[in-house]
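Recap from last week: sequence in, structure out.
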Amino acid sequence: MVHLPSVVKEKARAIKLVVFDVDGVLTDGTLTYSASGEEVKHFNVKDGVGIKLLAEYDVVTAIISAKDSAPLQKRATDLGIGHFFPGCKDKWSQLSALLDELWFNPEEVCYVGDDVIDLKVMKRVGLSVAPKDAFWLVRDHADLITEAKGGKGVAREVADIILGSRMPLDEAYIKAMLPEFEQQKNEN
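Predicted structure tokens:
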């Protein structure tokens, strides 16, 4: 893991909720269609481990995406992400409602986004993160830019940063080594 500035570590330590955009964050942003017109998305399995590991340490996860698709719904279900908001055009409004429901403050939120639709949220949360290949304006407003590009382990890197701000990572990964870890769904 990359050496983090102390201010980022402090922000990461306070996080109770991590919200992910999808296209360009959990995927590389490529849109692929089958011959019958079905959308195909490619997700990184390492991201799934990171998301599930966050839940193991009581960090709630959510997805707020401007788009909706069957592959996205399947991935959210497979990861047990209970706070799933596809087809959302006003991400800040949706996040505000979720914060009210969970009784969290914006400072307790890490938001991971890659394009201009994410800026309104990123400017208002405790920790804003952009993938290495995010749109330049988003990178300029992010507290942290990941080493990973979109779809190439961004969520795993974010999980490592948050968990690593609280404990040694080898300690955090003990839970991921248990046989029952892969059978569990994210219960947030």
